[in-house]
Write a structure and sequence with these properties.
Blueprint lengths: L5 H29 L5 H19 L6 H26 L6 H7 L6 H20 L1 H6 L8 H29 L19 H16 L4 H7 L1 H11 L4 H8 L5 H7 L12
Helix pairs in contact: 1-2, 1-5, 2-3, 2-5, 3-7, 7-8, 8-10
């Protein structure tokens, strides 16, 4: 499909970068005041929501309105659900050990180091990963079967995240499960239902941009980068390293898929 508005999209890239930067700088100011850098995890979903809303506004008069509304709504629903979940989960807790370990290596001022290595880096990732959300705003023509299949894939991903998070929260709330490994529900099909959900969400959003070859070409880096982060980067790999020494975890690994869902092996 032709007619992709390259000039308007290029300007959108700047607006999106500004939106991500503002979210991260405001979050940094709140974190310094509160002494808790873990709140940057809440800003992750908010950053994507801000980029989607700003891109929708910037693309007025461009692209296909139903597609623009759909991709903005899907991104906001995913981002705000994630931010709300992380905020509730972290309420009443101190600093995240991951950030304590990172900032312990700071060569100078911890806050300056955190700004550079956490907030600005995450802001850059929000901008990069959100490329399909930005590009889809400028895709002309009606939604195709490919775009609707992306919406279905997004829904599958959101379902895995929401259901997996709810199941884990109920498991942890039961005192009888203290010290045990969660291996029920979706967690018996994959060790990372929330990361698999993220994987589906971002490949789904990418498909919403695929009705224009130019938009697909410029944004395919997004789901690829997100997939690498989830599977090889700061997602699955780091969490499993942290869990490796817990009683029962080796057996859980032996019977449960590491990422893509499948029925559990017999104990």
């Amino acid at each position: 499909m032709s007619g992709f508005a390259w000039g308007a999209f290029a300007l959108n890239l700047a607006w999106a970068a500004g939106a991500a930067l503002v979210v991260m700088l405001v979050t940094f100011a709140v974190a310094v005041r509160s002494g808790l850098h873990r709140i940057v995890d809440i800003a992750w979903g908010i950053g994507f929501t801000a980029v989607a809303v700003v891109s929708f506004a910037a693309s007025a008069g461009q692209g296909d309105l139903p597609r623009r509304l759909l991709v903005t709504a899907l991104t906001a629903v995913w981002g705000l659900r994630l931010a709300t979940h992380i905020a509730r989960r972290g309420r009443g807790h101190g600093e995240d050990p991951r950030y304590d370990a990172l900032l312990a290596k700071a060569p100078g001022n911890r806050n300056t180091y955190a700004l550079r290595m956490v907030y600005l880096l995450q802001g850059a990732l929000v901008w990069l990963v959100s490329l399909p959300v930005q590009a889809a705003q400028y895709v002309p023509g009606p939604l195709s079967a490919v775009a609707w299949s992306g919406t279905v894939l997004w829904a599958v991903g959101l379902g895995f995240e929401a259901v997996g998070d709810a199941q884990l929260a109920r498991f942890r709330a039961d005192p009888a499960n203290k010290g045990r490994i969660m291996d029920r529900g979706l967690w018996s099909w994959t060790r990372h239902p929330n990361y698999f959900g993220d994987f589906c969400v971002w490949w789904g959003l990418f498909l919403l941009a695929c009705d224009a070859p130019a938009a697909a070409a410029v944004s395919v880096v997004s789901p690829v980068v997100m997939s690498l982060l989830l599977i090889k980067g700061s997602g699955k790999r780091l969490l499993e390293r942290h869990m490796a020494g817990r009683p029962g975890y080796a057996g859980y690994v032996a019977r449960t898929s590491g990422f893509f869902p499948r029925p559990p092996r017999h104990r």
